[in-house]
Amino acid sequence: GLLFVGALLLPGVDRLGYALPSGDRKPYKLTGMTLFFYTHIVVGIGTVAFGLSLSPMITHFWSLLIVTNIVAFSWSFALYIWGKREGAESLSHGEGLPLPVWLKDIWFGNELNPTWLGVDIKMFMYQPSLIGVGLFVAAFAYLQFEQLGTLTPQMICFVAFWWIYLWTHYVKEEFMLSTWDVISENFGFMLVWGDLVYVPFFYCLPGGWIVGQA
């Protein structure tokens, strides 16, 4: 929710997307780097000034996973309802699959580029996805420091390599506008679940092994 408010209010880089199947080029305000930067500020100030710890993200991992799945399912259904409005642009997906049309529309999505309050939802969802996995990776480091009083070389490398990966993504965030996901894939459960659950909760799992390695 905070990231969405940030996407609405914070400055970003204006870019035109690549040609869609209709031939149109959609304008985007890319706020990823801004949100990435401000997340560092909030976590840094919270840690130094207020004793913030991210370790509860790990100790409550399964609870967060369950709640995020509920959010993903609910959001997918909301997108399905929203995509049924008149004038919504959609592409055909799932041809030949022996499934009801409504199920295909929920799974693959029934709108190409849903926009809420001026924010392109498909591009926005990379923020809770990638910033989310970054926070989980950091949370493993917080937990190890609380348990051992130090960070092992393995944990330092784990956090550093992930940070470099995320930094390079946000430096070149506009490259995402050229991907098949953005240009030619409807936005439905498959992408919503991947962004909210699969990337942040599964990509960080090596930290669960590293955290106990003294």
Overall shape: globular
The overall pLDDT, averaged over residues, is 91
Instruction: Give the biggest beta sheet.
Output: 2 strands, antiparallel
Strand content: 5-15%
Q: How many E-type strands?
A: 4
Specify the number of helices.
11
Distance between the termini: 37 Å
Name the strands of the widest sheet in spatial order. Answer: 1-2
- Can you write the helix and strand succession as a string? HEEHHHHEEHHHHHH
Helix content: 55-70%
Low-confidence stretches: none
Structural class: mainly alpha
In short:
With 214 residues, the chain is mainly alpha-helical. It has helices at residues 2-9, 32-50, 56-59, 61-82, 101-108, 121-124, 126-148, 153-171, 180-184, 189-202, 206-210; strands at 13-16, 27-30, 115-116, 119-120. β3 and β4 (119-120) form a beta hairpin.
